[in-house]
C-alpha cells in the first residue's frame, strides 16, 4: 500500500513539474519565436514549435503555432497541418479535425503529383473521429501509389494509427 501511495505522489509531482515546465517553455518561446522565419519556426527540428513538441508540451506547441500564424498572418498549409497534429497529440481531437479540414486540397490532381495528401489528412481525421473503416479506406487509397516516397512515409504513419486504433493519437504514433 505504501508503495502505491508513494508512486501516486511521485507521479503527481512529476506531472505538476511537467505542466510548470511547459508553461515556462511557452512563455520563453512566445518571447523568442514569433519573429522567426516560417522556415526556422516550422521546418527546423531544433527551433520554433518543435522545441515544445520535443518536450511533450503539445497544447503549448499548438498555442505557439496559433500565435505565430496570427502574428505573421501566415497562410502556409504545413503550419496549419502541424497545428492540427499538435492538437491531436494534446487530445483535442475536435480542434485537430477543424484545422485538418482546412488543409484539404480542392480538386486534388494525382496525375501531376501522386501524393495522396487528402487521403493522408482524411486518414488522420478518421482516427480522431474513431472511424476505423474510413481510416482503412484512406490507407487503401494511398497504397495505390505506395512507391512514391511521400506516400510510403504517410502510409507507414497511418498504418501505425490503424495498428493502435484504440490508443490516443500520441500513443498510437510512439
Outline the structure in words.
By secondary structure, this protein is an all-alpha fold. The protein folds into two domains: about 1-90, no CATH class; about 105-174. Helices cover about 70% and strands about 0% of the residues. The protein is built from ten helices and no strands. It has helices spanning about 1-35, 40, 50-55, 60-70, 75-90, 95-100, 115-130, 130-145, 150-165, 170-174. The longest helix has about 30 residues, at about 1-35. The chain is globular. The two termini are about 30 Å apart.
Give a short overview:
The protein has 10 helices and no strands. It has helices at residues 2-33, 38-42, 49-54, 58-72, 77-89, 93-101, 117-128, 132-143, 149-163, 169-173. Helix 1 runs parallel beside helix 4 (58-72) and helix 8 runs antiparallel to helix 9.
Spell out the blueprint of helices and strands.
Blueprint: H1 2-33, H2 38-42, H3 49-54, H4 58-72, H5 77-89, H6 93-101, H7 117-128, H8 132-143, H9 149-163, H10 169-173
Helix pairs in contact: 1-4, 4-5, 5-6, 6-7, 7-8, 7-9, 8-9
Signal peptide: 1-20
Organism: Shewanella electrodiphila
Keywords: Signal
Radius of gyration: 18 Å
The largest pleated sheet is described as: none
Structural class: mainly alpha
Write down the overall mean pLDDT: 90
Distance between the termini: 32 Å
Total individual domains: 2
Number of DSSP E strands: 0
Cα shape = globular
Spans of at least 5 consecutive residues whose pLDDT stays below 50 are: 4-18
Number of helices: 10
Proportion of helical residues: over 70%
As a percent range, the share of strand residues is under 5%
Order of helices and strands: HHHHHHHHHH
Amino acid at each position: 500500500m505504501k508503495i502505491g501511495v508513494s508512486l501516486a505522489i511521485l507521479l503527481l509531482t512529476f506531472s505538476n513539474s511537467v505542466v510548470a515546465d511547459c508553461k515556462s517553455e511557452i512563455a520563453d518561446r512566445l518571447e523568442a519565436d514569433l519573429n522567426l522565419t516560417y522556415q526556422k519556426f516550422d521546418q527546423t527540428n531544433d527551433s520554433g514549435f518543435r522545441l515544445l513538441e520535443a518536450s511533450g508540451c503539445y497544447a503549448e506547441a499548438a498555442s505557439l503555432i496559433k500565435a505565430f500564424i496570427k502574428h505573421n498572418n501566415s497562410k502556409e498549409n504545413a503550419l496549419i497541418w502541424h497545428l492540427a497534429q499538435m492538437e491531436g497529440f494534446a487530445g483535442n481531437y475536435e480542434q485537430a479535425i477543424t484545422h485538418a479540414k482546412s488543409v484539404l486540397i480542392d480538386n486534388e490532381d494525382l496525375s501531376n503529383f501522386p501524393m495522396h495528401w487528402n487521403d493522408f489528412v482524411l486518414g488522420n481525421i478518421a482516427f480522431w473521429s474513431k472511424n476505423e473503416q474510413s481510416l482503412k479506406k484512406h490507407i487503401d487509397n494511398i497504397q495505390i501509389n505506395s512507391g512514391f516516397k511521400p506516400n510510403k512515409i504517410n502510409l507507414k504513419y497511418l498504418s501505425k494509427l490503424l495498428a493502435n486504433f484504440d490508443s490516443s493519437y500520441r500513443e498510437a504514433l510512439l
